[in-house]
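in:
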């Protein structure tokens, strides 16, 4: 008889760890976070707000941006944007939200955060921050994962704060949701090239055409708005807000998820900031390109060899932008797809809407120019969280190359 079989031996009881109150509070909404591309039917989205926004302070990246847009006077800004401009922008954002909700889309909004406060780290300080109008710049959704981008401006270092409540909620409700923060950069002086020309001279053109930008390769940086999602593939716009080190972080991260990452360069754009006024996918095998910023021919071949048609954007309705907007007139390209067949467009961009209609799209015109002062248009001010669909490849030639290499 073994010791355990002895009639007077203590009985063993099966024990399990108690379930904590936190674990009990977790939901089971699998698939709540799910968005692989820019065109599948939209079901849930984050839309920004203009509350308590400020004009960003003078710093290397912002100075370059306003010089490019001819808005050098913005460097003299000292605090909040005007109450009137904030109200006008919020009125248009709120109307846009009403339209989205009328189409059955769930809309989340960030918390109100005061951006007129100084920020100081061991490496730098700025007297104020920016805005929470443009979640696309910060948040990248890849399937069931939301990635907080590194960002590239010091004034935007803490721009993730208004969205933390939303992200915590998604993670608690969706047991499959992944929440990733890319490595936070130090943003010390050596991240920015102090001798970079800002007068758009021949030297500036030479540097851009050799892929040398305002930011160095000291550490990985990327803004999420530099990334366009095509299912299994993402394309990353290289420039002043995303460097090669940042691309390499994205490439490795995507590879760990069975995805592919590709660079895009637009050498005629002397101040490359973000992709969504330069190259925009509309539906499978159809994308919109900027006639003033052609893609490098060797990169364009990826699309041509995989049966993608690239159509030329119509000219903007006007080249005049609001007084305190540092954005390009090519915001006419900055649209949001409700589905493969429906696109939100700024109401004055008649030629763009005609172009979309020619390719079989229905367009929803929305007044939005008052939002331009706050950093962008429809794509900029949103981050889609759920689109109906799954990861798939739209680049069969790349699939064949990948299979042959295995």
């Amino acid at each position: 008889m073994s010791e355990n079989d002895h009639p007077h031996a203590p009985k063993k009881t099966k024990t399990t760890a108690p379930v904590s109150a936190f674990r009990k509070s977790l939901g089971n909404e699998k698939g709540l976070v799910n968005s692989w591309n820019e065109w599948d039917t939209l079901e849930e989205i984050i839309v920004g707000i203009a509350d308590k926004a400020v004009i960003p302070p003078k710093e290397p990246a912002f100075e370059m941006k306003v010089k490019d847009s001819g808005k050098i006077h913005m460097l003299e800004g000292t605090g909040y944007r005007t109450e009137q401009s904030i109200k006008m922008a919020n009125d248009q954002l709120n109307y846009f939200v009403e339209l989205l909700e009328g189409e059955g889309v769930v809309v989340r909004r960030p918390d109100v955060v005061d951006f007129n406060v100084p920020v100081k780290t061991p490496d730098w300080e700025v007297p104020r921050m920016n805005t929470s109008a443009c979640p696309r710049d910060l948040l990248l959704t890849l399937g069931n994962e939301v990635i907080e981008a590194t960002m590239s401006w010091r004034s935007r270092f803490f721009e993730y704060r208004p969205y933390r409540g939303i992200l915590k909620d998604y993670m608690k409700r969706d047991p499959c949701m992944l929440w990733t923060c890319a490595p936070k950069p130090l943003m010390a002086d050596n991240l920015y090239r102090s001798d970079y020309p800002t007068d758009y001279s021949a030297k500036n053109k030479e540097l851009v055409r050799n892929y040398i930008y305002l930011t160095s390769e000291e550490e990985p940086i990327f803004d999420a708005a530099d990334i366009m999602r095509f299912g299994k593939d993402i394309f990353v716009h290289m420039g002043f807000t995303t460097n090669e080190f940042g691309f390499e972080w994205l490439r490795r991260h995507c590879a760990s998820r069975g995805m592919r990452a590709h660079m895009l360069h637009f050498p005629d754009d002397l101040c490359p900031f973000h992709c969504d006024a330069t190259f925009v996918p509309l539906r499978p095998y159809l994308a919109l390109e900027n006639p003033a910023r052609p893609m490098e021919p060797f990169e364009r071949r990826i699309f041509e060899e995989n049966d993608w048609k690239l159509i030329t954007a119509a000219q903007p309705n006007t080249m005049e932008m609001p007084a305190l907007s540092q954005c390009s007139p090519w915001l006419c390209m900055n649209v949001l797809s409700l589905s493969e067949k429906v696109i939100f467009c700024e109401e004055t961009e008649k030629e763009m809407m005609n172009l979309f209609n020619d390719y079989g799209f229905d367009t929803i015109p929305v007044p939005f120019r008052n939002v331009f002062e706050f950093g962008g248009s429809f794509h900029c001010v949103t981050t889609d969280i759920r689109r109906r669909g799954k990861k798939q490849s739209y680049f069969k030639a790349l699939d064949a190359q990948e299979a042959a290499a295995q």
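note: The longest helix spans residues 83-102.
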